[in-house]
Amino acid sequence: MKAGDRDVLRDFFRKWQEVIEEFHITPEHIYNWDEKGVMIGLTGREWVLAAQDRKEAYAIQDGNCESVTVIECASQANISAFPHILPPYIISAGDTYTAANFRYLVETEYGDANILKGAVFRKSKNGYTDNKIGFDYIKWFDLQTREFADNGRIHRLALVDGHSSHLTLEIIEYCMQPQVNIHIVCLPAHSTHILQPMDVGIFGPLSRAYKKEVSAWCRDCTNGRMSFASFLLCYHRARETAITNRNVQKAFEATGLLPLNPRVVLDSRKVRQDAKEEYEAKLAIEQETFHPMKPLDPFNLPPTPRVNKTIEDIKTTGKFYTAPAFGSS
Questions:
Q1: Which residues share a beta bridge with 159?
Q2: Tens of pLDDT along 200-232?
Q3: Alpha-carbon distance 168 to 176, whole Å?
Q4: Which domain holds residue 64?
């Protein structure tokens, strides 16, 4: 965040509080969702234990570069009856995996029907979200949480980033229906690293856990590329490790959203450091472009022959030389 954006943060927290108080929204009905890109079979760089005399050391990776997008959603609810961690919404490029296809893949290869239970599978042209998927997701989210919101009579709040698929006209019209009552709050630009619970406390542990699972799979299964079913198993295990009640609760607390505590963000090292860097950069630019006029000291002028003669005349005769008045000949 830039130095001037502290006011933006304060304004966001004020509006956040106003929406919650006006519609009497309780924590179990406040959700955050976001997309996460996942590369099947790739873990990135790793630390590898090797002999000291080896110049390079390598870790086995599957090499499957297929990319999928997973939408994760959770609320801070600590009531077991509420669906505070929703099933993943998985978007892949190419063929569509229906629930039946998914169950067949997993049960055939691993014999476990509980892997990513309730997950939804969609496809898009490139494996990313688009406006159509964004609209389908809000309707699915409504169905997943409606029963626990008294069939839409209790207001719900969804915190999202500024991606275009999160706030289309269709989504706004759908959420404004009296029987829906979903309020969408969009985060300020460039603030997800400090205000979005998924980014602050969930996706980091999830990435590390997934990397660990894929590395273990690559060590045990060196033949062939990682199948989609194997990817789902690795992601399921990573998800069970990372997306826990405790992590979700800590993520909301770390953003200052629930319980409401703006000072957590405003006084954080990230915001203070960004503000300091912005101020120093602005000051450096001003110093480079602004050169104030300094009064000339007649006894410390540059040592040219004419200047030296003028100084000597002043010292000896007391004569002061001035420029002719404007317009005089």
A1: 32, 185
A2: 999 999 999 999 999 888 888 766 678 888 889
A3: 12
A4: 3-44+59-276
